[in-house]
Design a protein that fits this description.
Blueprint lengths: L5 H35 L7 E3 L5 H4 L1 E3 L2 E7 L5 H5 L1 H5 L4 E5 L17 E10 L5 E7 L5 E6 L2 E6 L16 E7 L4 E9 L12 E4 H35 L4 H17 L6 H5 L5 H26 L6 H20 L8 H25 L5 H22 L9 H38 L2 H60 L5 H32 L8 E4 H9 L3 H6 L3 E8 L9 E4 L1 H17 L6 E8 L3 E8 L33 H11 L3 E6 L5 E8 L6
Helix pairs in contact: 1-11, 5-6, 5-12, 6-8, 6-12, 8-9, 8-10, 9-10, 10-11, 11-12, 13-14, 14-18, 17-18
Amino acid sequence: MVSISRNYFYYKWFWVFISIVLLAAGIAGVRYYISAAEKSAPRAVQGVMDLERYGLESHGTVRLDGEWQMYWMRLLTPVELASPEQAAGERATPIVLPEVWNRVLVDGVQPGGSGYATFRLKVKLDDPASDLGLKLPYIRTAYKAWVNGEPVASSGTVGEDIKTSKPQYTPNLIRFRHAGGPLDIVIQVSNYHHRLGGIWKPVELGSWSAMDSKLRRELAIETLVVGSLLSMGLYHIGLIALRRKEKGSLYFGLFCLLIGIRAFFTGEGVMYYFVPEVHWLTELRIEYVCFYMGVPAMIMFMHSLYPLEVRSGVVRLILALGVAFSAAAFLIPPPWVTYTTPAFQLITLLTSGYLLFSLARAMLRKRDGALFAAIGAGAYVATVMLDIMYYNQWIKLGEVSSYGLLVCVFMTSFILSSKSAKAYVEVETLSRQMREMNTGLEHKIRERTAELERINRSLERMNDDLARMETSRRHLLSNISHDLGTPMTLIQGYVEALIDGVVSQPDQQQKYLKLIHNRITGLNRLIADLFQLSKLEARQMDFDIQPVSADDFIRYFDERYELELAGAGLKFETVAYSLRPEAHRQAIVKIDVDRIDQVLTNVIYNAVKHTPRGGLIQLHFIVDEHSLVVQVQDNGSGIDPEDLPYIFDRFYKKDKSRNTAGGGSGLGLAIAKEIVDYHGGRIWAQSRVGQGACIAFMLPLAKGGE
């Protein structure tokens, strides 16, 4: 037993429910519209329709529904009906059109489908003289029509037996000049070739322009529907040329073609307008075969999608029945061939029920596309049921299966497209895998060897970095031990001298206390540098990033260090260069001004410690298209080449390096490097021993949208 979650149940059946509601609402809306139109339009009573107050010109068209006079088994001309003596001897039977005469009681007996009759309706008009149009649908199975005694249209040959009558479906839109007064419409009908006879579709009257526009619109819509079905059918059949194993596309394409061809003969009968000379029996057999083979094509398609839910035995049975009924459509003569459709309509209803049941099982088993298949099949089955009831004259709304099929085609095309897309992805994946395999084992070995070499080089670099870091760590521990030990030893000596009374003079004691205070201040500075560096490495330091223009940056640091360096006996100069085109917008850097001030202070005072009195320190600002570069140049002792790569290392300290000065912790430049890195920049050094050093850092300019 398949178990499904409640959310799955709600999700799946919610869309099915919405689709059914929309379909039902559409059908109900059409039905309501038709009912409302029928109630608002006048109806014929006892063979007379009064349109004197209707206003035919304003309404455009009107269906001539209601009670007509039918003269059963009589073929009367307008002249005969106009003769008082002849008319007095004829007995008219009222019939509410549109309706087949099979259900009309003539002398208490239903006459059946075969026979002939004359239909008559008088229409009262008060409109002035104008061009009118009279639409006669295809009538089963031959007719001849008069308006005011003038013959206006005919289809086939009206006869009193099967030998003298000739069936033909020819819908007509008749244009005639109305000179005023009532209309007398007379239609002779005979039927010996169909199980249902008479005028089973509405006759319409209206102004010629309105009738012509309405017919063109209806034909355009049906042609669009038929063309869509035929196009989809040919498209899916064409897919077989690309993928012969995809039988589902073949079955679905055949189904669309069969139903599309059948739609030529139903509805408004597009085929009868375009090719009126085709033999009636040929058209009937084509329509029946398309119906009989369309159902097997549909169930075979569903079997290709869901073989475990749609049983192959049922598919073979429906296919055999379709072939048998199609053969009967060619072999059995009319009218008996038309009696095969009610039996196959029952088979269609049973097949539709089984199909919906199978799709429900596929949904419960979470088959791909089962929801869309159920929606499409449900829409098509609902409209097919309406058509079956309409063709049996049980309801007035019908010939809508083509629209239900469009919904089915859309949903099914989505399923097939999804399957094709998955198949293409699988093929592409397999092709890519095959290409990779065909490259050869030797190529793979070379790739893997190169990869191992890269990994080995990376490991060697990591080992070198670890060794260097370990060396730096030992240097740091050694230097920190020295920097902590020496001050502590001195402080201890000063304190012991004070305790032992060696220093008794107040001035000397004050001097010793100042020395102790200076040493403790240095230790605090060392500890603070270590704490700040650890926070920078862990990215736990707070930065107040603000946009600052390059001009404001240069003005801020231009004279900041001049007095202090002059007090140290050094010369100080600042120089600014701009390499940006004048047309460019103002250069902006996003920085924490206090942190950058700390960087520049560390670098400048490092230069001060290694520059003799009377020396020169220069501060250069260079602005180009992408960055702001700050350079600190001195003419001091310089940096040894072996120390140059390590002066920014957080664990590196050497007495002759630029990272420290005279007992410093060796952390100043390491802190500067961490701050510059946080700003997305970089810091570097250049030097020659005895010629001074240049320490520079770069800050990126903010982009236009930042």
